UniProtKB/TrEMBL annotation:
Family annotation (InterPro entries): Beta-grasp_dom_sf, Mopterin_synth/thiamin_S_b, ThiS/MoaD-like
CDD domains: Ubl_MoaD
Top-level taxonomic group: Bacteria
A Pfam family per the record: ThiS
Gene3D superfamilies: 3.10.20.30
The protein's name: MoaD/ThiS family protein
Organism: Alteraurantiacibacter buctensis
Signal sequence annotation: none
Amino acid sequence: MAVRLVFLGKLADLAGVGEREVSAPLDWAGLLAALPGPLGEAARQDRTRIAVNGALLADKTTLQAGEGDEVALLPPVSGG
């Protein structure tokens, strides 16, 4: 089984898809390796947040996801 990556907002535009599956288990280094070019750069930004199964991570570098987990990448929120 795999980990499902979900891209929201401008990150979906960069990915070209809303979702992608990657091999489990997945940690921060594995996530970065799975996200090429501008998408990986966007994930590294301090304002990009990561949630695992709906729970926001306080420190995205602690990412640990296993089979069947969903990892959502959330772009910085803008608005007024």
